[in-house]
Write a structure and sequence with these properties.
2 copies of one chain form a homodimer. With 132 residues, chain A is α+β, with helices and mostly antiparallel strands. Chain A is 25% helix and 46% strand. The first copy, chain A, is built from 3 helices and 7 strands. Chain A has a 6-stranded mixed β-sheet with strand order 2-1-6-5-4-3, covered by helices on one side. The first copy, chain A, is globular, with a radius of gyration of 16 Å.
């Protein structure tokens, strides 16, 4: 693993920790001023660091980000994370989500954020699968 | 990047290429006999190489797997890919999906396959977002 790949992984880890900790100044310091944030599921795009920080500050609920796996190479990183939201110790939602990052010179320039929702499987493969 | 991380990435690349090419013998050769396949969206699990190869062989449609990004370290890999299905040159579906892999001694032991579907965004963030 090159030093640059290690740096990308460290940037992704800091992204998760500072977002979870609502450290907005530290969070903003990881982002390129012209960062692009995209959500493929909803076809939403946010342009620029200020709007993207605001988006996260305003995001409702007592949500938590818990990293499961971070991967990275010289330019790209990925974060598989458990996202939970709840109140008073009750977990109302709990799902796995995935973010991909492009990092240039230590700053995040692009985030692609996948929020996969649950659905029922199509019929025809019950002979091979079990459910949990 | 260590040789072992390169091997994990090569295994993920071969997984995508052999699946796309319906090279079922070559595909099976990448899998541990006790491989576990999980789909978090549908809470489906398939146990074992034979069932998992059958699942893919039987999967309906003229689907294609087109890798967008492969990441890997010593044990884990991820594949971001474009999945299309259609007939007669028409693309009926086109989505990004993500698979994570655990690799042990060159064989895939675990696959977690995320198939995020589209949905409408929640209200309240239109002042920050654009749509595509």
């Amino acid at each position: 693993m090159t030093a640059r790949a290690e740096n990308v992984k460290a940037t992704v880890a800091a992204f998760a920790a500072r977002l979870d900790g609502r450290d907005w100044d530290g969070f903003a310091a990881l982002l390129h001023p012209d960062v692009i944030y995209e959500v493929p599921q909803t076809r939403e795009r946010i342009r620029g660091r200020d709007r993207y920080v605001t988006f996260n500050r305003e995001y409702p609920g007592a949500w938590r980000i818990d990293p499961v796996l971070i991967l990275g190479d010289e330019r790209d990183g990925s974060l598989l994370f458990r996202w939970t939201v709840g109140a008073d110790g009750e977990v109302a939602e709990d799902q796995l989500a995935i973010a991909y990052f492009e990092v240039d010179d230590g700053l995040i320039t692009k985030i692609t954020d996948f929020w996969p929702g649950p659905y029922e499987p199509p019929p025809g493969r019950e002979h091979l699968t079990e459910r949990w």
